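Lab notebook, bench 4. The sequencing result for the construct came back, and we need a structural model before the next group meeting so we can plan mutations. Quick request posted to the team channel:

Model the 3D structure of this chain.
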Amino acid sequence: MKRFILMLQFLTRIPINMNLDVNEDDFFEGVIYFPLVGLIIGMFVVAFYYIGTILSDKLLGAVFAVIIEVFITGGLHLDGLADTFDGVYSNRQKDRILEIMKDSRLGTNGALALFVLLILKIVLINSLKVPDVYAVLLLMPIFAKLNVVLASRIASPARKQGMGNLFIGKVSTGQFLIAFIIAIIPSLIFLKIVPVIGLMLIFSILYVRHISNRIDGMTGDTLGSLSELSEVAFLLFIVILFR
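Done. Here's the predicted structure in token form:
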């Protein structure tokens, strides 16, 4: 339970007033709870989507769903997305890319990535049919977080030090399998999602390969970027397969 609370504090801004006695091992051991944290986030997303539809229509529901996720996560992964796009797609050498990613200033590539991603989320969520949309929104953060666990399992760290090094290259196959089982259980409410699960894992593997080709590994920023891009990929796969 301590490690689950730790992951909830780490990945969200949900106010939990508990001072935990933890060490570095608690972080990478707690990685199995990533999908469970995703489930908590998904519950908020579903609730606010429903509120938006009650107040107006599906479009407002989609806007509310996106806004509450940004609020709940504190924009943690969006920051990683912006830093990744500013650095990786700056067409520089590895050392310079890593320097750019550490820069707190928002560049053009990062701003464009944020804008496009948020718009895509709203449009894709708005295109989903009721009642499927509720299951999709619940499961979306779960499998995005599972992709982060998989990436941490198969990648190596691009930096000698960094927040991402708490997880990258330290996750075992057993931990990934436990996280996978945790992610699969909620998906039983929406069995036709099964083909999408495979596509999501493939997406994670291809993303890790792509980023590793540029900077010889992964960082905390690229893990955050993967989480955000995985949500868009999840929605896109749903829209394409079930249109």
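The chain has a mean pLDDT of 91.
Will bring this to the meeting.
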